[in-house]
Amino acid sequence: MQLVETASNTIPDGAQVMRVTARDGAPLRAVYWPARREEPLGTVCILQGRAEFIEKYCETAEDLLARGFAVVSFDWRGQGGSYRALRQAKKGHIGSFRHFHRDMLAIRERLLERLCPRPFFALAHSMGGAIALDMAQRGISPFERMVLSAPMLGLAGLGSPRRASAMARMIAGLGFGRLWIPGGGATSQATRPFDGNLLTSDPTRYARNADLAAALGEGAIGEPTIGWVAAAFRVMAQLQEPRAALDVRIPTLIVAAGGDAIVDTRAAERFGQGLKGGGVIVIPGARHEILMERDAIRAQFFAAFDAFIPGTHVREKAAPPARAG
């Protein structure tokens, strides 16, 4: 349950690593960073995407701590240092996204409500964004506001999403849900060569995450199982219903990636335009992992974050303008 540190990735000071057990007995690896000021602005809970892990967001945690927040991060079941449903730890299998609800509710009950200053905010990426919206629709979210980075509301490049969804459901229904997707395997996407990657245009951050994935071993999982894909399609179909955004009563800002080749940016735009509170912006040129992108892209993300999350306007005092002559 400890965190892994590498030469290129330092754990922010004050980390309190703990084991949180969900109601069904699944152990989760979690970490809490207390705020560095006497009057915190609240707590930001980082909700990872598929195949991610706590250590990948240490830089982001440091950014949030510098803004005056307490920070919580945890590994969803099936990845990182948390529970596995299968003996093959690299598979990261899940049969229903409702299991992720149990994880989030355990973090709320055993960590957020016991240790953390209010209000609670979500910073969610990709799959984490889909989980956050699913829970918000069902009225079981603990958050006051949410900022979603490239949420998984549809997959990019699918010629026929309905056909792909039907095939995944059928194969899973026949009892093959625990198999890798066709062509899938145990190799973590984060350890593949930088050239041609779909995650980020920043080679330094990409190399840092590759080093972390190698150091974590089984914590950095491979491709999804057919069961995970079938479950993901079910959630995405629900979130693509015409009135789905209206059911989200929590103010929500979607920050989508203009160069995303993993999730469907158009689906995120449609959803964001239907929100009662919040909206959507698209960062041109950003690839899927916006928070792992170049400094200029990350700066745009945090400018939007700071404008949306109350009390986070942390800026250096501007120098007085020079006088002419």
Tags for this model:
single chain; 325 residues; alpha/beta; Rossmann fold; eight-stranded mixed beta sheet; 8 helices; 14% strand; disordered C terminus
| Oligomeric organization of the protein chains | single chain
- End-to-end distance, in Å? 62 Å
Give, in spatial order, the strands making up the sheet with the most strands. 1-2-4-3-5-6-7-8
Radius of gyration based on Cα positions: 19 Å
For the biggest sheet, the summary is: 8 strands, mixed
CATH architecture: 3-Layer(aba) Sandwich
Give a count of the beta strands, DSSP E runs of length 2 or more: 8
For the record, the CATH class is Alpha Beta
Q: Which stretches are poorly predicted, pLDDT < 50 over at least 5 residues?
A: 314-325
Tally the helices. Answer: 8
Summarize the amount of helix as a percent range. 25-40%
Shape: globular
- How do the SSEs run, as a string of H and E? EEEHEHEHEHHHEHEH
Average per-residue pLDDT, rounded, comes to 94
What does this structure look like?
Helix 3 (127-137) crosses helix 6 and helix 4 packs across helix 6. The model is unreliable at 314-325 (pLDDT under 50). The longest helix is centred in the first third of the chain and has 18 residues, at 98-115. The protein has an eight-stranded mixed β-sheet with strand order 1-2-4-3-5-6-7-8, sandwiched between helices. With 325 residues, the protein is α/β, with parallel strands linked by helices. The protein has eight helices and eight strands.
